[in-house]
Amino acid sequence: MRIIRVVCTPDGICREPGDIIEKDFTPDECVVLTAEPKEHYVTQGAGGVREDTVAGGVTADVRAVNAGGSTVVGGAAADGDAVSGSTVVPGNGAAENDERKVQGRRIAGRLETGAGTEYAFPVQEACVMTPKKITRYAIEGKARVAVKKTVDGERTVVENAREIPVGEAWEGKLTFSIGEKEHILGLGQHEDGVANYRGCRQYLYQNNMQIPMPVFLSTAGWAILLDADCLMIYEERDNRITVTLDAVEQVAYYVIQGDTMAELVAGIRKITGKAAMLPKWAYGYIQSRERYCSQEEIREVAEEFGKRKIPVSCLVQDWQYWGQGKWGDKHPDKVRYPDLKALTGTLHDRGISLMVSVWPNMNKGGQDNQEMMEAGKLYANLSTYDAFDEEARELYWKQCESEFFSGGTDAWWCDSTEPFTPDWNGAQKRTDRERYQISAAELTRYMDARKANVYALYHAKGIHDNQRKAAPETRVVNLTRSGYLSSQKYGTILWSGDIAATWDVLKRQIVEGLQMAASGIPYWNLDIGAFFVGNLESWKRWSGAKEGTQPWFWHGDFEEGVKDKGYCELYVRWLQYGTFLPVMRSHGTDTPREPWQFGEEGGLYYDTIVRYIRLRYYLLPYFYSLAYQVWREDAMTMRSLLFDYREEEKAAEAEDEFLFGDFLVCPVTFPMEYGPGSVPLSEEKKRPVYLPAGDGWYDYETKEYLVGGREISAAAPVERMPLYVKAGSILPVDSRETADLYHEQQGEEVELEIYAGKDGSFTCYLDSGNGYGYQQGEYAAVGLQWKEESRELTLGAAEGEYAYPVRWKYTLYTETGSSSGELAYAGQELTAKL
Q1: What is the pTM of this model?
Q2: What are the beta bridge partners of residue 236?
Q3: In this predicted model, what pLDDT tens digit does every residue of 71-96 receive, in sequence order?
Q4: Among 218, 438, 785, 821, which one is least packed by beta carbons within 10 Å?
Q5: First vs last Cα of the chain: how many Å apart?
Q6: H helices within 350-431, ranges in order?
Q7: 497 vs 471, 494, 612, CA distance in Å?
Q8: Percent of the chain with pLDDT over 90
Q9: What is the structure's pLDDT at 100?
């Protein structure tokens, strides 16, 4: 791996890396380019901003700075001509032909960051910087406050706030040339399910259902990580990538070059920080819905799971637990939640954690708003707290701690952390450009434009840092709707927002999850079954409206929810897919989500849901060991086939299957038995599956061995998702399907599944399940190796200070059958012929 920092500075000053960059990270090389003044015209109108440049010789002052800090003046970039022509980017809807001459900065010429090495690399063709004023809202006189009720919660508006200037910055525009056949991945999670960012434009801004990440990767073996916190626009046309940075003090980025795609993701984490391990219970099953209305209801749900012997690790309290008229107040209504400690005590006795929804906005009338107001820590809407202010973050934590954390709450659901979603209204979905313009205007109205994409990051930092101070031995869990690179350090789980229940959305979500994983974020999930299930009638029931039209995003296909067999089938398929996500969580509105809502024992939907939840717990030792590799080795769990098989054309085409550890997961993304309204269908109960070449594969359910490098028609009745495990895999499993992951499980026994056919290795990991002792060696890690030719299994010497298991049971699967046995282990290397 090789990492180069490139800085394009408008004034010759090379500034320190931004907040998303690890403070102790040092690149292998640093290239600093100073832009020359360049007068150019900018035309701003309803169609956007058009920049006209004039071709001419412009020489960049290029300085190559090595890792040791010495400076070498020389030809890190070639001199060349400025690129002529016009580039269009979205504007703010000003009148046409508003032309102005600006004194900008420009760097031209080819910067070849991989020249003379064995690595592939993109070529920087140009960097243009245009001056930009930074403004923020301030209140004139006595605030005139209005509260608007939206589907995304109550929002406060101050009607007499106005913009005031607070600083100056630059709009930056980078242009890279790339190869014709490269696939481009990353950029976080969006809505449209784009698997290859060629020939398209993406707007990178925080919004419900959109989580931008400032990084993109190429299958040629390089990645570009932008050191910027602002809004951005990515576009690729004709083998050129253009990235527009809305507001920066300098244009800075990192080029990561590696031998494998996984090495590029490791590079992202090396630059932005290691992913913290979540507590063990967070890898189990999380049950949620919009919403439980009392502590008694939560207790009853926990009791029902126990009665039915269905494993569950966490129950979630969604919004509106607060008192009437106290939107966002982090103090539960005492009538409905009289004794939080009693509730969490009951849940903990059952091995169940409690997660609670908290919001960054809090309206007048509540205690939290009053405290923030008196401290001067609210934005000019007098509702949303300023997460960039350290004192405000500390105060926010004290509010979380006063009743929830002190009352035994285990995890946070930080909802609406964009924190503004102005396009979430109207019956018709606006164009991508219009949505970006509306959101950009709102985000930069309250926040410094240079930081408009990182509110959620600072919010997560505040939760993490302050909880670590209050309870150093409790791992932080923060389910958050928005995030950014480096949020993986703070115990965050990102989720895809308020998606709708359609088969097409399910298929697109598979791609979006893989793009998030490619962006370096290991913990991502979604609302199993989707958030919005119905449309017009569901909206009327939810809102109490007797007439009108539902907003554009409330467009699920199933008005009757769990009463509709078409939805039950979709939900089962979604849950099968969700079983193989980093975090498995069911949630949504319009219809309940607990397993028994889909039938009773003996019914197709109920039995399948319960079977896959139990499969999650059966594989939990494997999933938890993968989590260790994510932390220790900056590894990936979920990933596109391109990460392991990028030379295969078929791997690029297989957008609806993916790898999770050594599993090949093939969700079903179309109905077979019922459509909306329980309309019967008679589709074939199969789906096409591509088995990648170079490996053998076992059908995980039947244990049949299959040769790779071909497409098969896989059996896929509703009760079964095609699932395969790679030959050479070693899987720690738990046949007891231990449901209590809350309390420490210090067992003396481990069970292994070994799949013959190829050499393989894996590290089995155990620890207490909580706390940060793993960072100081309080764990047991045992390296496992399978040698195909000699049929030998080796258990390496135990690493770490935690008690290792002394009995290792195994089942060996081969092309012709299986065999089982047991090994006694004393912590030293042990090899056995199986």
Answers
A1: 0.93
A2: 241
A3: 322 223 322 222 222 222 333 333 33
A4: 821
A5: 38
A6: 367-375, 390-400
A7: 29, 9, 23
A8: 85
A9: 54
E-strand stretches of 597-650: 638-639
pLDDT at 81: 28
Phi, psi of 141 (to 5 degrees): 70, -150
Which residue in this structure is represented by tokens 């607070």?
166
Average pLDDT of the residues in 590-612: 98
* Exposure of 91 in the CB half-sphere (CA atoms within 13 A): 19
Structure tokens at 3: 């990492």
What are the phi and psi torsion angles at 18 (to 5°)? -75, -175
Confidence of residue 148 (pLDDT cuts 50, 70, 90): confident
What's the Cα-to-Cα distance from 427 to each of 398, 497, 536, 548, rounded to whole Å? 40, 19, 10, 9
The answer on pLDDT for 294 being more than 80 is yes
Residue 631: its H or E element: helix 620-633
Q: Which residues are catalytic?
A: 415, 418, 498
Q: How is residue 657 written in tokens?
A: 């299957």
CB burial of residue 799 (10 Å; 0-12, 13-18, 19+): middle
**What is the chain's length?**
834
Q: For tokens 């309940």, what's the residue?
A: 592
Question: Which two tokens mark 260?
Answer: 């494998």
pLDDT of 716 > 60? The answer is yes
- Amino acid identity of residue 816, one-letter, is T
**Amino acid in position 223:** A
Cα angle: 791, vertex 795, 797; to 5 degrees = 150
* Residue 714 and residue 666 in contact, taking contact as beta carbons nearer than 8 Å: yes
Residue 120 pLDDT > 80, yes or no? no
Residue the block writes with tokens 């205690």? 367
pLDDT, residue 63, reads: 35
d(CA 464, CA 444): 25
How far apart CA 690 and CA 523 sit, in angstroms, is 26
Per-residue pLDDT band for 103 (boundaries 50, 70, 90) equals low
The single residue listed with the structure tokens 């939840």 is 613
What is the three-class DSSP state of 687?
strand
Q: Give the Cα separation of 798 and 780 in Å (integer).
A: 6
pLDDT digits (tens, 9 = 90+) for 635-662: 999 999 999 999 999 999 999 999 999 9
Residue 108: enclosing H or E segment and its boundaries?
strand 98-112
Find out whether 590 and 536 touch, Cβ atoms under 8 Å.
Answer: no
Maximum Cα interatomic distance, the chain, rounded to a whole number of Å: 82
